[in-house]
Design goal:
Elements (H helix, E strand, L loop, with lengths): L2 H16 L8 E5 L15 H7 L7 E3 L5 E3 L2 E7 L4 E6 L13 H10 L10 H5 L5 H5 L9 E5 L2 E5 L37 E7 L3 E6 L13 E5 L11 E2 L7 H4 L13
Parallel strand pairs: 1-10, 1-11
Antiparallel strand pairs: 2-3, 4-5, 5-7, 6-7, 8-9, 9-10
Length: about 270
């Protein structure tokens, strides 16, 4: 069975087992196969970390379990000049876990942080490297990303050195860059994403604790006020509702809540 097929089969099995979860459960416990290496959307570079981080930090668009591209923080997008520039219309009414409203400038600030050498960027720099000005940032020659233009609070244009027709589906995390003022370990002090869950605690080698974000733009996750992802060294502490033998799915899926697909993208 291929990697994608295995993930879909696992998701189906977990969705089925969800129907047997205790009614009114206040917490959700999931076992993961390894302790994550990062909990920072900037340095994120491995699968286990990514599957946890994406419950807290979202992208402009995503891909659902059927392989269809779905709007997330962007509601629609349009290719200009053969894909050398992309114009994104952003979702309105989205708030960060910090309480601040998400705007187009946050896309620019997030991308700039993800290309700042001092912040030790991870996998996201690969997806951003062809944006105009990205190389200068990675080389330490610039602190502003020239290829990202904030048109207005709800619109952003991104220009590349060469066409990139796949850019809308890349997993590039958006976050409130104000949290960087808390220092290098900011992600342990404050949750800065827009996702359905926000960070609570990371006990290395033991567990990661998240809690539902009541201000989530698609509605607060149902069925659990908190979630605990337990590592291989602590698999049975307190019992587990599900055991993930491959890669954990987004926690919303375990709680029977799918993110809305919204408007269909344009390309």
């Amino acid at each position: 069975m291929g990697r994608i097929s295995a993930k879909l089969a696992m998701a189906a099995a977990l969705a089925l087992s969800l129907t047997n979860m205790p009614a009114g459960a206040k917490s959700l416990r999931l076992n993961i196969t390894a302790d994550p290496s990062q909990m920072d959307p900037i340095t994120e570079s491995e699968l286990i970390a990514g599957d946890i981080i994406r419950n807290m930090y979202e992208d402009l668009a995503g891909i659902d379990k059927d392989g269809k591209v779905t709007p997330v923080l962007a509601t629609e997008w349009q290719a200009i000049d053969g894909g050398k520039t992309w114009r994104f219309k952003l979702r309105q009414g989205v708030k960060f876990h910090t309480g601040r409203e998400f705007k187009a400038v946050d896309v620019k600030r997030s991308f700039e942080a993800l290309l700042t050498p001092a912040l030790k960027p991870g996998a996201s720099q690969v997806y951003l490297k062809d944006i105009v000005g990205a190389k200068d940032m990675l080389d330490g020659k610039a602190t502003e990303l020239a290829g990202v233009k904030v048109v207005d609070d709800g619109t952003v244009e991104i220009t590349f050195t060469k066409p990139d027709v796949l850019f809308p589906i890349y997993p590039v995390r958006i976050f409130d860059a104000d949290v960087l003022s808390h220092g290098a370990d900011w992600f342990l002090k404050e949750s800065g994403g827009t996702g359905p869950f926000q960070f609570v605690e990371w006990k290395r080698g033991s567990e990661v604790r998240l809690k539902s974000f009541p201000g989530y733009w698609s509605g607060a996750p149902k069925g659990a006020e908190g979630s605990s992802l337990r590592g291989p060294d602590n698999p049975g502490a307190g019992g587990a509702d599900h055991l993930s033998r491959h890669e954990p799915e987004p926690l919303c899926a375990f709680q029977g809540q799918a993110r809305p697909r919204g408007d269909q993208p344009r390309g």
